[in-house]
């Protein structure tokens, strides 16, 4: 695996996802449900800490536990993409907790980059421009919801 790979997150909108994008996200995430969440989480956090080492101190939970929480959260969100509005309050509460942990608006770009990179590595040949755009749109919606709930000015996650 090339740990020096740079991935650029380019979404500038939080427009609703299309039905096709929802299906692409769900289908691509289903591959990750077959992988130990600790492995997927470890790849994600390794990339995040490589790209933004200054956030490592924000994590006090053992990495295995944190990985499971991350994968569980993504699984819940992906499972509810057709009715994401039902999770809005939960996502907003999660964002407010993250502020207490020390998360700031610029951290969301690094998380999105690490997530998309992890997805690309895991999907290999199944990663394509449509899947990329679907995940970018999904992450833009979630990160903008969290940034707004955190009390930060909404920023373009392009940074």
How would you sum up this structure, described in words?
This protein is mainly alpha-helical. It has one domain: Globin-like, CATH 1.10.490.10. The protein has six helices and no strands. The protein has helices at 19-32, 37-51, 63-79, 88-101, 107-123, 129-149. Helix 4 crosses helix 6. It is globular, with a radius of gyration of 15 Å.
Name the descriptors:
159 residues, mainly alpha, Globin-like, globular, disordered N terminus, disordered C terminus
Task: Describe the secondary structure blueprint for this structure.
Elements: H1 19-32, H2 37-51, H3 63-79, H4 88-101, H5 107-123, H6 129-149
Compact description:
This protein is 62% helix and 0% strand.
Total number of domains: 1
- Portion of residues within helices: 55-70%
**Low-confidence region ranges:** 1-14, 154-159
Using the CA coordinates, give the radius of gyration: 15 Å
- Name the CATH superfamily classification: Globins
SSE order: HHHHHH
The structural class is mainly alpha
Mean pLDDT: 82
Q: Count the helices. How many? A: 6
Shape descriptor reads: globular
Kindly state the number of beta strands.
Answer: 0
